[in-house]
Each structure stands twice: as C-alpha cells, then as structure tokens.
User: What shape does this take?
Amino acid sequence: MLLTACSAPSGSAGATPNSSVPSTSLDTGVPDDFSVDVTILTEEEGDAADLRNARYVVFPDGTLHYAARAGAGPNTLPPIVRRLDRRQMDGLWRRARQLGLADPDRGEAPSNFNKVWIPWEGHIYLMALTANDQYWNFTRRIQPDQELDPAMRAFIRDLAALAWAEDERQDIKFDARRYDYGPDPYAVYRENARRLAEAAEADGAETDDP
Assistant: This one.
C-alpha cells in the first residue's frame, strides 16, 4: 500500500517547499550531519533524469551513491559514483535552503519509505534530509497529467548533475580496436613444434613399413 503522504496534493499548506527563503538565511555553512536520500519510482520512465527510476544518496562525508534502474527502492544503497568536496556539499546545502527544502517545518511527518510500492502510472518521489540533528522528508505522487513541484524537481536535477546522470540515455556501440604489436614472438616456437611433430610422424611411418 502507498503512504498516505504520497497522495497529498503538492500544494498542501505547510508541506510545500518554495523559493521564498530570505537571502540572509543562506549564510550558514553546511551542517556536519547534512545528508540527502532521494528515490524515484515509476513504471513509465521518461528520458529526463528526474523521470527515471533512480536512487540518490549523499552522506555527510560527501560520498554520492547513485543508480538508475528499476528495483532500486528506498531500502537499497547504490554504488558510489563520486565524493563531493566541501565546496560542493556547501553548495548543495545552500541550494536546499534556497528552494525551501532545508526547513524541517516545511517537511512532512517521518514516513516509512519501505512501504511505498512502484505506482501503476505516474511517478512517486521520496526525499529525506538530515541536518542539525533533525530528520524530515517530502513525498509526492505525481499523476501522468501532473508535474512535480519546481523546488523538488530543481533539487533532484542538481543531484543528477552531480552524479553525472544525463537526460537522454543512448545505446553506445564501440567498434573493436585492433592494436598492431608487431610480429608474434611465439610464432617461431609454434613453427618448431609443428616441424617436430611432423618429423615424429614421419619416423613412425618409416618404422611401421615392412
């Protein structure tokens, strides 16, 4: 069953991030325990990075885990793709504050993401953040005729850029590259072995003659 929070309208009062955060609130550096956990679930993947099944996890030490595949649910930890430096972590935190995602009061009551199933249609977005010894989350269920609120979409696309997740997935085919390393150094040994084998066969044939 889906979480109740997932069916809440994206414009619900008190739970919708926005970009009206005063600029003075952006001066605080990134908290030491800042982390991000994002899951995108869908049966109908699009070409854009924010429309595909995906998992993004950023730990306080800057390690960024990412995977874009069906089945990468909120209880999975994708492989590490890179480690963000302090400047990048600070930028991510500032971006979250700018978009209104870094305010626990704008978040929703903690939800058990593991109880969320892939929707038959549309998309489900699960986002959890921690900072300053606090945890809060955002959950959105977006129907095919709806769009994710701009703040969450912008932040997810920022994560995708940090994870080098491209919008359009293309099947890249590589032609085999052949290298010329010169003459085969073992050719002479194979030729000697062939001649010895032929000589042994000839000796055996002469011995068998009456």
Residues 31 and 125 are 24 Å apart (CA to CA). Residues 187-208 form the longest helix (22 residues). The chain is about 25% helix and 20% strand.
